[in-house]
Amino acid sequence: MRSALSKGFPTSLLALLLLSPGVLAQGLLEAPEVTAPSGYTSTPSAFLATGGDVFDGLDIGISASFGYDSNVRQSPGLPVAPIEDDIFFTISPSLRYRSVGTDWFIGGNASLDYTSYLDDSDLGGLGYTLGVQFGYEGNPLTVTGQLGSSYRTGVNRYYNSQAVDTLNFNASLAASYRWSAKTDFDARLGFSSSEPDGNAFGGNQNANFDLTAMWRATPLFRVGPGISWSRQTGDRQGDRDTIGPVVRANYQLSDKIAVDGTFGLDFVDGPGGSDTAFSMRLGANYRASAMWGMNLSLYQGTQADVGRAGQFRETSSVRLGYYRKIRRVNLALGVSYETNDYSSNLAVAGGPGDYLNLDASLGLLTIRNRVQTSLFYQWQQQSGGNRDWDGYRVGVSLNSAF
After folding, report:
1. Alpha-helix runs per DSSP H in 238-291
2. Are strands 104-117 and 86-98 parallel, antiparallel or unpaired?
3. First-to-last CA distance in the chain?
4. Three-state DSSP class for 400?
5. 44: closest CA among 331, 365, 381, 284?
6. Is the pLDDT of residue 318 over 60?
7. What is the per-residue pLDDT across 330-340, written as a single tens digit (0 to 9) for each?
8. Beta-strand relationship, 104-117 and 354-366
9. Are 69 and 5 in contact (CB under 8 A)?
10. In this structure, what DSSP letter does residue 55 have?
11. If you average pLDDT over residues 166-181, what whole number do you get?
């Protein structure tokens, strides 16, 4: 969901599906998609969006939240930057569609996101999220792709905790070819960019490609070596190219366990001189029963630092989520930790530092089981980087699909 603090984070039903720690999906379980942290803050939810019934494949939804933020500008509390609290309100209508019943599929999602603050009106405004997904699921070839764009505004800790409007774009294409009963070839290509509004900061662009030969060790487990290439650059940075070996592994047990991970050793050519770095993306879902489950995301990677000219930020992050269903009540708990360093040889003052997030939400289906009502609490703390701050948010959110 989109952050009440940052207002630009998507609140569409699709975003709920991908990001909520309280995923209660039915059927085949999938490993969560692991991406680099955005710097914005997301609002926790105890629910997965329910499907609508306008016609097959289409969901129409609306979500709203109302709450209190104890530190809307992520201020360290200095005399020149006093702590400000505020009351916020958000509302987001959304559409999500996926075709059904054929080898080919196409889908899309769209949402508008509006946030208003009682005192800090400059933090409020209108954002959007748009996405298209497509693919072919056949034998021996499977191809999937997606295109997406979003406009986000709000406080972002990567932009020195300033309110920033950003226009984001992402695209990806993945293909898998069954060479034999034991061997698959997988290829993935991706691109993303983030451009801030105004000249105070620079944007960044990231491209990556990997090719792996996957050995089907068992009907449930695949593992194999490959090679990966990436390029990170920014409006105020040079090009940073990496190439190196990777190992990818995935495991899937129907609706119980799903794990997908890629681990790489990157040989770096770019700002700061030649170097080596470690990269990792690991997503895991575990559903013990219809009553409870857990999910895990691990990320290690490098991006052009949007708040520091000439710098590249190395980020390591982990998130662990737990959900529990108790009669008609859903409980979701989550903890996230992120640490950052710089890969440049230049001296750096300030920076994003280390970041800790704890969240909890408690939800109940109301109004003939059509409205999901959640109470949420979230505590955040950043330390290091000459900007120490903490704050909490508490409120209520309503979600419904038609």
Report:
1. none
2. antiparallel
3. 18
4. strand
5. 331
6. yes
7. 999 999 999 98
8. unpaired
9. yes
10. S
11. 95
